[in-house]
Amino acid sequence: MTGMIEARELVKHFGGRRHLMSRKPTVYAVNGVSFAVQQGETFAIVGESGCGKSTLGRLLLRLIDATQGQVIYQGKDITQLDAGAMRRLRREMQIVFQDPFASLNPSMTIGRIIGEPIELHDLARGQARRERVAELLRTVGLQPDYVDRFPHEFSGGQRQRIGIARALAGEPRLIVADEPVSALDVSVQAQVINLLEQLKQELGLTLIMVAHDLAVIRHMSDRVAVMYLGEIVEMAHVDDLFDNPLHPYTQILLQAIPVSHPQQRRERLALTGDLPSPTALPSGCRFHPRCPHAKPLCREQKPVNECLPDGRQLACHFWREIQNQGAGAPLIPSVSDKLAQRLVIYKERQAATPKGDPHA
Amino acid sequence: MTRPTARQPVLEVTGLSLKFSRDADVPNLVDEVTFSVSEGETLCIVGESGCGKSVTSLALMGLLPAPPANIVSGTVRFDGLDLLTLSERAFADIRGNRISMIFQEPMTSLNPAFTVGHQIAECVQRHRGLSRLEARVEALALLRLVRIPAPESRLDAYPHELSGGMRQRVMIAMALANRPKLLIADEPTTALDVTIQAQVLSLIRNLQAETGTALVLITHDLGVVAEVADHVAVMYAGRIVEYGTVAEIFDDPQHPYTIGLMGAIPSIGKRQGTLATIGGSVPSPERMPKGCRFAPRCPFAQAQCIAAAPPDLRLTQTHRVACWAAPVEHAINMSMLEATS
Questions:
Q1: Which residues on chain A are in Cβ contact (under 8 Å) with B280?
Q2: Is A349 left (phi over 0), alpha (psi -120 to 50) or beta?
Q3: Is any Cβ of chain A less than 8 angstroms from the Cβ of B163?
Q4: Which of B197, B246, B279 sits opposite A256 (nearest CB)?
Q5: Which among B190, B199, B268 is the top mutation candidate for probing chain A, defined by the most A β-carbons within 10 Å of its own β-carbon?
Q6: Quick one: angle between helices B256-264 and A337-352, nearest 10?
Q7: Is the Cβ pair B282, A349 closer than 8 Å?
């Protein structure tokens, strides 16, 4: 595996400008984030609202400029590239947005929405371009004759497919998907997840998922970075993280997931208080005001990022002690025999039924 | 976990059908919906957008203006009253008092121009005739009940000054202000982060245990169902396709839609291959299929399913399913027999 994209000490602060009378408070959205994503990997950035995960996703594509730090794409620092070079590079790095209702231009036909990147990068013209658009629609599971329709004629799941087709139009190598399924119903969400995975396989894409749904992340990703108040608190291989979370925040986050079976109901360690404002970050470890294990040291001193032998990175003063207390043991989901059997039959049946476009 | 259900139902909905039209040819948006919920019990109505779960709850609250809404048939009995025949005046005394509701979006359901203390006090004043000072004391007690930190200072806060989780707690405080016999919560945690969701769910559960309120919780999230439900109604396109105790629904799901939903959710455990999907999307009200409404998306659909809506099949005292093919392992055997003969 080779390096695809790398964040080096990325920092993004918003606001803080002086006005005549007042000063807007600075929002510390991303505070020194570093990681590297390998080619062909699915890397997930997870955290609660306001943790800076979407900002980080946009920084990686340079949709917004970093306050400090670098983004290295294929060995090249793209933070200093001029507009023309950046535009050429954008073909290779694309984004899929969360809201399929807000991210498609309502006055453009589907054909133009998907054809625009092909036109911008001059990849095909005339008939060839129309054919390419039709092919892209088929790729995402839509009918090619949808080209003359407008976004409002489609359901949320279909619109998300259109957004994916558009992202694929420039034949990208890297896709940042910002909450790509969180606005969708469960059944449609599964369709889009399967589509993203299949496309990633077929086209050899590198995928960076920004999401808050931990089950979706467990299902889709290879490695996971957990963010809290603009920092990565823990980063590990997906199975290591879910089976053996070490940072207290990761542990609480995983505990908060609703159980998958009524027999597993339990009292859980609840997170107290609300997320502090990113305009006034806590001292020391950012998580200390809400951490059940916090000690005086946590308030005074920021923990360093430790690298463990299994490749995990973690920023907590007391993770060893906490681990010895046995915190963070995950629940094994249970599926009844009847459900398991019926799911097998269901999937077989579904695979056997001819696949038309059911929306037609 | 599941409480005994011998108690008298607080709410009994029988054969409720409604639509937004007087035209007899227009299919019902909510069709023959039947369920009940008893004191201290939680019924979860599960379904995706457009399944009619929110319209059902608005109908129960008497919040659907008629016209355009048209209750075609059915009864809704609450505490000895038939809610569907109640005058608007009489309903106003019940709503917010003996029945109350929590909505999904706490920002749009709180009035931005009034402090939260004022809004909570208003509901206790309206229904219990307390003085302003008494109402304020009560509002403070309620904020404390829903575990809002520093409640004294929050009384005079405006909704925009609170976080999403805190606003939802204020909504819960308002909903519980008059100790309702029935609480209807429509996606109460959908807009919240998982950690806040866990707090709000445990809060609702604890308060329910204290007050004995019957709860109808509407959600699309099977995880929330697994956390709080005693009984579950799975709704699809305006109909209850499966109904049972929470254990029956999770251990022995019968309807292909229920099975598909369960398989469509990624597991938090080790990855188990690709997800099951449910092809297509929910039919629009104008294009409602004639027979079983799930048939166009169902991998088990046969001629019979397209021709006629399936009747309720009773599996146990509590478990019922509306499907011609249930149980699906039986349907497989049947089709194999057909193929060999």
A1: 358-359
A2: alpha
A3: yes
A4: B197
A5: B268
A6: 100
A7: no
Strand extents, DSSP E, chain B: 9-19, 30-38, 42-46, 70-78, 81-82, 99-102, 182-186, 214-219, 231-236, 239-245, 313-314, 320-321
Does the predicted model carry a pTM greater than 0.95? no
- Inter-residue contact B84 to B76 (CB < 8 Å): yes
Q: Is B195 on the interface with A (CB under 8 A)?
A: yes
Ranges of each domain in chain B? 9-98+178-340, 108-177
Q: Is A355 on the interface with B (CB under 8 A)?
A: yes
**Averaged pLDDT score across all residues of chain B:** 86
Q: Which CATH architecture has domain A1-92+199-360?
A: 3-Layer(aba) Sandwich (3.40)
> Considering CB atoms only, which of B166, B227, B296 is closest to A274?
B166
In Å, what is the CA distance from B229 to each residue of A125, A265, B48, B196?
A: 57, 11, 17, 19
Residue A66 and residue A59 in contact, taking contact as beta carbons nearer than 8 Å: yes
Instruction: Check if B52 contacts A (Cβ < 8 Å).
Output: no
Q: Can you tell me the mean pLDDT for B64-73?
A: 83
**Cβ neighbours of A265 in B, within 8 Å:** 1, 226-227
pLDDT at A220: 92
Q: How many CB atoms lie within 10 A of CB A356?
A: 10
Residue A33 C-alpha from the chain's centroid: 15
pLDDT of B198 higher than 50:
yes
CA A7 to each of CA A62, B264, B307: distance values in angstroms, whole numbers, following the listed order: 11, 33, 59
Alpha-carbon gap, residue B318 to B329, rounded angstroms? 21
pLDDT tens, position by position, A264-308: 887 776 677 667 888 888 999 999 998 989 999 999 999 999 999
**A202 interface with B at CB cutoff 8 Å:** no
Residues of chain A positioned with their CB less than 8 A from the CB of B48: 185-188
- ipTM at complex level: 0.82
Domain residue spans in chain A? 1-92+199-360
Cα(B296)–Cα(B275) distance, integer angstroms: 20
| Domain covering B9-98+178-340, topology | Rossmann fold (3.40.50)
